[in-house]
Amino acid sequence: CLKKNLEKALEDLEGVKVRNLRDHLEVFCSVEQREEVRSRLRGVFGVVNFSWVAGTAPDFEAVAECAVRLVEEALNGVNSDRFQGADGVPFRVLVNRKDKQFSMNSMQIAAEISGRILPRFKGEDGKSHRLKVDLSHPKIILNVTWDHDKVFLYANKEKGPGGLPVGSAGKVVALLSSGFDSPVASWMMMRRGAKLVFVHFHSYPAVGPESIENVEVIVKILNRHQFASFLYLIPLIEYQKEVVAKAPSSLFVLLYRRMMMRLAQRVMYREGGKALVTGESLSQVASQTLDNLHV
Length: 295
Known about the structure:
Layout: H1 2-10, E1 17-20, E2 25-28, H2 34-41, E3 49-50, E4 54-56, H3 60-76, E5 89-97, H4 106-117, E6 131-133, E7 140-146, E8 151-155, E9 158-159, E10 171-175, H5 181-191, E11 195-202, H6 210-226, E12 231-235, H7 237-246, H8 252-271, E13 276-277, H9 290-294
Helix pairs in contact: 3-4, 5-6, 7-8
């Protein structure tokens, strides 16, 4: 499910490919596409973290050059002022040696790579250091996978949005207003793996089209996370006229809301959904008391 969502998120980028491996996924893209891919990965639920990985030949000089580039980039993202006078930013190399026939073990490879990196990060005075080795509390971790014919490197991990892949938990119907609470509720349900169908009730043309236009914008924003969305726009004005003509004014809002739930339930059955999502917050307003929500 996550692989399909990644493919949907990246489908308009030429040449980008997604591969599913045992314990992670790989996204192949060009250097020029890197920032765009990074931006989109941050919006795909189910991605806990990701790293830009560089590959090179299993040669210490080539590995050191690649490592220096990655560490420099990671160092630029660290607030070095915090480590002034501490002889540099804490750093370590973690090696996974897949080539068990290689003459050095993982710790020896790590020490060799560290020894080639550290001299490249001296301070401007030529005596101080921008990095120091700290195996217990590193701020920068250079991960190295040493395989038979290639070495893969990455420095630190970027946080993804986490959660579960959209679509992995089933389909639900969200009652979406043009306010704040229901879009947040929808986002939270997407993050738990639900695929959402949206329903918006409106009173056009008795009022202007603003709420419809706002909701269309909201759905476009939420669609960044599920990549294909359907929005039902349901006019409520004829029912509202009936209520105004026949019911006490104190019940107007409650009856409007009740009909919205009844109609949304019809949409849910039609779409094969399993639940309704609302933006209600208990006792936030009069129509959201527990008694009124129960009705």
